[in-house]
Design goal:
mainly alpha, elongated
Length: 108
């Protein structure tokens, strides 16, 4: 279990690094937000799962499970809310973006 926990922790750290790299490389706020949210959600989940396997105690695993549920519920929702707010604030898409699904939509 120790080896599997270490592998999951390392894999989570790699995804967190890729999320940070995506934040630097993407052309606009919307693409950065997507890259950051997807990679950090998976990276955090893998990282916490690795820690839970390495610790092995029931109380620690329950606490980490609560954190996993919290990340799964809040990270995508907050990213969506921030992207929608950025769109309605008038932040432009990158020139390479091909579709704007919210064009013409008003704040409700």
């Amino acid at each position: 279990m120790m080896l599997l926990g270490s592998i999951l922790t390392l894999l989570g750290a790699v995804f967190l690094f890729l999320g940070a790299l995506g934040m630097l490389r993407m052309p606009d706020v919307y693409n950065r937000m997507q890259a950051g949210t997807k990679a950090t959600t998976l990276g955090t989940l893998l990282f916490l799962a690795g820690i839970a396997l390495r610790q092995g105690s029931g109380a620690c695993t329950v606490r980490l499970g609560v954190l996993v549920v919290f990340v799964l519920l809040t990270n995508p929702i907050s990213s969506h809310a921030l992207a929608r707010a950025a769109h309605f604030a008038g932040i432009q898409l990158a020139t390479r973006s091909v579709q704007d699904d919210l064009a013409g939509e008003e704040i409700s």
